[in-house]
Amino acid sequence: MERDLFGFLINSDIQVDIDNRRLTKVSSEGTDNVINFGAITLKETMMRLLVYLLTHANDVAISKDEILVKVWDENNLTSSNQRLSQMIGELQSKLSIIGVPTDFIINVRGVGYKVNGYCIRPLYY
């Protein structure tokens, strides 16, 4: 039985829903049973970039050239180092809205990017 990738779970509180291009975070605070919920939606290319990083770059740097080919070129989009850098910055800003630290995606000088030491688990259906 083949399973399809639904998304990812980052740490234990952030869910990445690939098809809906949505990230949600559910957390509770203190003893008052207060539950916080946050959600953001990503554009298609930004989600493709995030999924590629989560799939391939957990604690291992992935080259900029490979990212450009897989995220842009293979989807008939024009790629450039400037677009990649800009998209990473925008992605980091979006992720920070739901509480993901800015060091979640790191630029490894002269190599590319990596996801920095977070527990990332694929979710299947």
SSE blueprint:
Blueprint: E1 5-10, E2 14-17, E3 22-29, E4 34-41, H1 44-56, E5 62-63, H2 64-72, H3 81-97, E6 105-108, E7 112-115, E8 120-124
Antiparallel strand pairs: 1-2, 1-8, 2-3, 3-4, 5-7, 6-7
Describe, in plain words, how this protein is organized in 3D.
- The structure is a single chain.
- This protein has a single domain (5-124), classed as Orthogonal Bundle (Arc Repressor Mutant, subunit A), CATH 1.10.10.
- Helix content is 31%, strand content 33%.
- The chain has helices spanning 44-56, 64-72, 81-97, and strands at 5-10, 14-17, 22-29, 34-41, 62-63, 105-108, 112-115, 120-124.
- The strands form 2 sheets. The protein has a 5-stranded antiparallel beta sheet with strand order 4-3-2-1-8, covered by helices on one side. The chain has a 3-stranded antiparallel beta sheet with strand order 5-7-6.
- The protein starts with a strand and ends with a strand.
Keywords:
three-stranded antiparallel beta sheet; globular; 3 helices; five-stranded antiparallel beta sheet; single chain; WH-like_DNA-bd_sf; 31% helix; OmpR/PhoB-type_DNA-bd; Arc Repressor Mutant, subunit A; 33% strand; alpha+beta
